[in-house]
Specification:
Shape: globular
Radius of gyration: 21 Å
Mean pLDDT: 89
Oligomer: single chain
Structural class: alpha/beta
Number of strands: 18
Helix content: 25-40%
Distance between the termini: 18 Å
Strand content: 15-25%
Number of helices: 13
Strand order of the largest sheet: 7-6-5-8-9-10-15
């Protein structure tokens, strides 16, 4: 059993729900220690029950938008593909809480629920602003969203374990799905079209190109086990470039760098999720490498600010969105999870090194990844705010506040 705490004004109600925790008494103590609770937010006639961290995160997004950003998004109709993925969580909750205030008319959504339908969707489906549909972007009818004028195309498989397992579906979403959207909207009066590419288009940069700027062409293996993702994103960028120039479409490309945070399933099989799952379950943190590769990590709500700014840019361009601070090794990342878990939850697991069951797990895995975000700072006034330690704390507090079925499916 676990206990989550729901806030109704100044009154607190304890609600019991099932999960993997074995010691109910210890969980009660833990909740008191981390200040865990859920918050009810009223918007119009709707009441949104969200984890406290989610409320804080959407406030962060709103406050980071400039007045010009808010003017640009006013009276818009939005289409989000792949809304049920890890990046969709913060974006859709932001629209649920602030959509009416920002004057957003409608938010359409397309997702094929390849890995199942997230439970968190249930708390926003009743909002009249949303029209979220179970559809496949590679063959669905798009007419229902024909009045959309801002498009977020994030449908893809971003976890290396899963895109190696489903390479054709990965390429289809990044190429066929993108091409269908570009064809559909090319003659329509849209304000912005955002294609979620990836930092993986850079492949394995030379050390002289780290931090990596948008001008770097990349060093990518075209026929390796990761190529289905890397190369389909690269070809997707080529499609965007040519549609923007041929049809004067306001297409912007974003290259995300190593996102983590609320909305990411703990069985996503990226290290940030693997380590979180180990802390929650009080298991050892397993590193499936020598722990020496380095990354910077960007908290998803922080990155969402950048994605919204990119979508509102209104012309062809390419932006890195990520954190350029604290490039750390995977071992150092594991130590952060270990120490924060110990402080918050009395976590007692060790850091261990093993070989992954997927023999291609490390093939073509870049040794370093760190963005140069000078361009986003200059043209979008984008500035990441959440330090990696604070982000891990928020992510773990979010996870502990959710039913197990909400974070693992």
């Amino acid at each position: 059993m676990r206990t989550s705490i729901m806030a109704f004004g100044s009154a607190w109600i304890l609600r019991e729900t099932k999960d993997c925790w074995k010691n109910y008494g210890e969980k009660i103590k833990l909740l008191g220690k981390v200040g865990n609770r859920r918050i009810h937010i009223r918007r119009g006639g709707n009441m949104l029950d969200v984890p406290l961290i989610t409320k804080q995160d959407v406030e962060l997004i709103f406050n980071a938008m400039s007045n010009k950003d808010k003017e640009k998004i006013a009276n818009s109709t939005i289409l989000v593909t792949g809304f049920a993925g890890s990046l969709g969580y913060s974006l859709l909750h932001f629209f649920a809480v602030y959509g009416e205030q920002l004057g957003i008319r409608k938010v359409y959504g397309i997702d094929n629920y390849m890995f199942g339908k997230p439970i968190w969707l249930e708390r926003i489906l009743g909002y009249p602003i949303f029209d979220l549909r179970e559809l496949d972007i590679i063959n669905c009818d798009l007419d229902f969203a024909s009045d959309a004028d801002i498009i977020f195309h994030m449908a893809s498989l971003a976890s290396p374990v899963y895109y190696r397992k489903y390479p054709i579906q990965t390429m289809d979403a990044d190429v066929i799905g993108l091409r269908r959207l570009l064809d559909f909207f090319r003659d329509k009066a849209i304000r912005g079209f955002l294609f979620y590419s990836s930092s993986e288009v850079y492949g394995e940069p030379d050390s002289s190109q780290i931090p990596t700027a948008e001008s770097y062409w990349g060093n990518v293996h075209t026929c390796g086990p990761r190529a289905c993702y890397d190369e389909s994103k690269r070809f997707g960028e080529t499609l965007c470039y040519n549609f923007a120039h041929e049809y004067e479409m306001p297409v912007t490309i974003v290259r995300p760098f190593n996102n983590y945070g609320p909305g990411m399933r703990i069985n996503d099989q990226r290290v940030v999720a693997d380590f979180a799952k180990a802390v929650l379950d009080n298991d050892d943190i397993v590193i499936y490498s020598n722990g020496k590769p380095t990354r910077t990590f960007d908290y998803i709500p922080d990155a969402t600010v950048g994605y919204i700014k990119c979508a509102l840019h209104g012309k062809f361009d390419i932006f890195n969105i990520g954190s350029d601070r604290d490039e750390i090794t995977i071992t150092e990342l594991a130590a952060l999870y270990q120490n924060i878990g110990k402080t918050l939850f009395n976590y007692a697991g060790k850091i261990v090194y093993k070989s992954h069951w997927d023999k291609e797990y490390l093939t073509d895995n870049p040794n370093r990844r760190c963005p140069n975000i000078t361009k986003a700072r200059e043209f979008l006034q984008y500035e990441p705010q959440i330090h990696i330690e604070e982000g891990i704390k928020r992510y773990l507090r979010y996870l502990i506040n959710c039913q197990r079925e909400e974070i693992e499916w």
